[in-house]
Each structure stands twice: as C-alpha cells, then as structure tokens.
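Progress narrative, Year 2. Work on non-specific serine/threonine protein kinase from Mastigocoleus testarum BC008 advanced from sequence curation to structure prediction during this period.
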Amino acid sequence: MKVYCTRPGCPRPHNYFSDLENNSIIRTVQQKYCMTCGMPLILAGRYLPTKLLGKGGFGTAFLAIDRYTPGMRQCVVKQFQPAGNLNQTQMQLAQDLFEREAIVLEELGNQHDQIPALFAYFPLLVENLNCKEEQFFYLVQEYIDGQTLEEELVEKGRFTETEVVQILRDILNLLKFVHNKNIIHRDIKPSNIMYHRNGKLFLLDFGAVKQVTNNPIGSNRSSTGIYSLGFSPPEQISGGQVFPSTDLYALAVTIITLLTGEQEVNKLFDVHSNQIEWRSRVQIDSNLGNILDRMLIAAVNQRFGTATEVLEALSKLPQFSQHQDLETSKSMQSQIQTPVAITNKSRTIPKTRINRSFSSFEILFGAAFTGFEGTLIAIALLNLFSLTVVSLICAAAVFVMLIFSQINRWIEKQDLLIISAITFIVLFFIPLLRGNLGIGEVIILSCGISLIAVAITSLFSLIQKLLSLLL
Ligand SMILES: Nc1ncnc2c1ncn2[C@@H]1O[C@H](COP(=O)(O)OP(=O)(O)OP(=O)(O)O)[C@@H](O)[C@H]1O
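Result:
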C-alpha cells in the first residue's frame, strides 16, 4: 500500500509498504515512518494519507483512509501550510482561519448534507531533520467523490442555462442555511463547489469564512483582506465589511463563468465600464440575466441583500418555477428550522437527481465503449449458447443495459475502461468464448464496430446540432 508523507518539502513522499496490503495489518500496526524523512505516517494513529489532492492558500489536501472504520472510509486530510513568506501576525491569522474552518465544519457539516462533515482536528508535534520540534495542524473531513465545477467546466466547455439555474438554486438554498447561522463563506467560486458522483452539489473550503458571532450580519468588522480575485466584490477587496450579499456577488460571477465558459474570470471584467461584461457573450432568458446583474451590482445597497430574495425572484420566472423546486425549498426550510434535532448527516441519494448533460467527449467515448464491449459480449454469447436467437436476445439486453447504465452515470470514465479490459481478458483466457475466432480477429472486430458506433453517434450529434440551430 502506498502511504504519502505529509512533511512539507519531503523529497520522496511516496512510501510503499507491502505488509499494508493486508487490511488486518493496517488496523493493528503501531506506526509507520517515512523512509526518507522519518515523519510518522499514520496521523493521530488513525489516518493514512494515500495521495496528494492539491495545495490551497492555507494548506495541502491529501486523500486518506480512516483505518478505524469498518470499510476503511476515505477522507480528506488537510494540513495547515500557508503559502508564501508570512510575518508573525499573518501566520497567526492564517492559523486562526484554519482553525475556524474546523469549527465551522463541525457546526455546519453535521447539520447540512451538502457541506462536508468534520471528522477530526488535531496538532502533531514531530522532530525535523535538524532534531528541532515542529508542530503541524491537521483537519480531517468527509471526502466528496466527484468533480469541482472548475474541473467540469474544463471538460465541458460551458454549462447550459437549465444546468446553471439548478446550480444557482442549490447554492442559494445552501447559502440561506449558512447565512442563517451568521456565517459568510467569502470564497464562493467554481473550484469550491463540487458535484458528488451521485449528482449532489457540495460547498467546500470554509477556510475563509467570517463568523459574525454576537454581532448582526454585516456588523462593523473588517474582512481581514481575504478574497479571490475576480470573484470577490469591491467591499471585500477593499477589506471593508462583508455581508451575505458578498457571497451572492461571488455566486453570480461563478454562474457567469459557467455560462460563458470563460475560465479566466478577469477577462470578463471591462475596465472601461468598471463592471463585468457578459450579456453579449451568451443567449439566456433576459429576466434571468437581470437577476444575475442585480447580484453583481458593486454598490451593496443596490444588490440583492439575501439568498431568499434571489430565490423569490427566480421563482417568479415562469419557465423556472417548477413544482420540484418548491419541494426542494420546503425540505430546506424544515432542515433549517430544526437544527437541534439533526446531529448526523443522512447520506441518501436525492430523489431529484440532477441529470448532468454529457460533454461531446463523454458521448463519443461512451459510444466507443458500447461498440467495443457490446461486440465482445455478443461474441461470447454466440459461442456460449447453441441457439442463435437466445444469444442475440441476451446480447441486445446487455447492449441496452450498457447504454442505460451510462445515461444514468452508474458507470462512467475509468469504469468503462475497467469493464472492457476485464471482458477482453476473459475472452483472451477462455478460447471457448471466442469459438473459431483468433484473438486478433476479436480485436479487429470489436475496434471496427467501436469505430462504426463513434461514426454513427457523431453523425447523429451533428444532425441534432444542425436541427437545433435551424429551429
Ligand atoms: N472534502 C473534499 N473532498 C474532495 N476533494 C476535496 C475536499 N476538500 C478539498 N478537496 C480538493 O483538494 C484540493 C485542495 O483543496 P484546498 O481546499 O486545500 O484548496 P483549493 O480550494 O484548491 O484552493 P484555495 O484554498 O486557494 O481556495 C482541491 O482540488 C479540492 O477540490
């Protein structure tokens, strides 16, 4: 098993322990140390980092396993590690913010199923290579197995109007909950919003939150100069007061980047008019555009003040005020009104699953897979049953199942490669399933049909695009 060393700057952080391939040894082993720098690898005696997820402004995130859960649950271990050379005051501020992320996650994550839950927060005292003591801080949170909106944007190019409205509603409901707790997120952007594989949206990174405890929201305290360039409104950049509407501004910029497909958000800013220019880049419902524009007003007193106000404005748009959204809003309402009763998160897959659209690459890759896998299965079935009709019926059923599973995203991306590799290996090692065909002929036949599937799908996509342009 690979275990990742979390010491900043460790020259060889990848460690491999063959004994840890065995789960019962993972559970019982005392400790493991980095073979290069001697750093203890099993954090708090419990969490084993396996992979680097990424580095943010205040820390480094690792994917880890929790060895004391029955299924060795995956989790995210974040280590406090501020970037750049900070002075003592800045360092203390960064550390406070890291701790605040833990406090906020503990409060919010356990009450809302679209915010990662906090599992642990602890310091670790270790000796460095010069035999001096060093202290590290770790925060362990729920792992969201999915993709950030930023990653999806890179894959898809841009989001449709229907998709962004669904995202807008979902995040507004989340913000309503967060703001009701007197907390302002302050770092809403596509890289901090994540789609779980089951279609549920999550809000991440509460490292920049401002908690206005004992003060009304927007009370007279400075915002400590934390912002994401391009997403943050003027009041946040100037280090002044922050308000719930500060998050609404960042949410509007987020939605506009998704609609326009512009990944470099600064390119949306027009220095001449001193505002974000986006309407000419996309064709959307003008009322929806007006709502986004009102979320983007620089003057706080003219911008929408609360998430509820925006939700109300959205519900007045006839094409978007659907029964389903009223239900979502009602269920959120009951969640907010009964905070004491909710202590554990329910991790059920939502009934109203968001059917995310497929990128062109995903469609063509799916077609190639279906052609390849379908052919392998048809060959095997034709050689397995003596009755050709039975084989063809079974093959057709499998074919339909393959397409259905992809449409519902039960299988996607690397699953497709794994499934076709397994089927191919089975055919390779069991000649009975190939009949008179040699392995070379099987490959040629499967690849050929896979190419035909891609060609037919491309043709249909082209016709569909042409029709949508004409109609
Ligand atoms: N709970 C989580 N589940 C899954 N992935 C996560 C989770 N939290 C963070 N990540 C991923 O880990 C990486 C680093 O996250 P981190 O929050 O440390 O920084 P960031 O959001 O990329 O940057 P910044 O702090 O500057 O906003 C990102 O790719 C993020 O998507």
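The domain at 2-142 is CATH 3.30.200.20 (Phosphorylase Kinase; domain 1). The longest helix spans residues 439-470.
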